Amino acid sequence: MPTFEPCPYCQAQHANKVRFTPWGGVLGPAVFSLVKCEPCGKHFNGKSGSRVEKAIRLYTTVSLALLAILVAFMIHAFCAGDRPAPLGPHHPVITAQVLPPAPVPLT
Ligand SMILES: [Zn+2]
């Protein structure tokens, strides 16, 4: 079992690796070497022995920002795609372009 730095909250030496958190999924805990103190149940960085509140806030802020950018990009791509412009009587040129060709008289 790997040994971690003592807990920054209660100085206990017993900590377990955290594999998943609601805020970071499986990536967040791996990035911060996150461990959970057994006696007090708090999370901290098992490698540096430092608290992770700031890191968690940064991580969630960054991932939320990335998510927002991604969503904005998807909305933009969806709205500005190759869909034809909405047709209507106030769009005579566009309407003329998408009208089917005049029927050819049968011979
Ligand atoms: Zn502790």
Name the descriptors:
three-stranded antiparallel sheet, 107 residues, alpha+beta, 3 strands, binds zinc ion, 3 helices
What's this, in brief?
With 107 residues, the protein is of the alpha+beta class. It has helices spanning 27-31, 53-79, 92-98; strands at 15-17, 34-37, 43-45. The protein has a three-stranded antiparallel β-sheet.
What is the number of helical segments per DSSP (H or I, 4+ residues)?
3
Number of E strands? 3
Work out the radius of gyration: 28 Å
Largest sheet: 3 strands, antiparallel
Describe this protein's structure.
The chain has 107 residues and is an alpha+beta fold. The chain has one domain. Helix content is 36%, strand content 9%. It contains 3 helices and 3 strands. Strands 1-2-3 form a 3-stranded antiparallel beta sheet. Strand 2 (34-37) and strand 3 form a beta hairpin. 15% of the residues are buried.
List the helices and strands and how they pair.
Blueprint lengths: L14 E3 L9 H5 L2 E4 L5 E3 L7 H27 L12 H7 L9
Antiparallel strand pairs: 1-2, 2-3
Bound molecules: zinc ion (ZN).
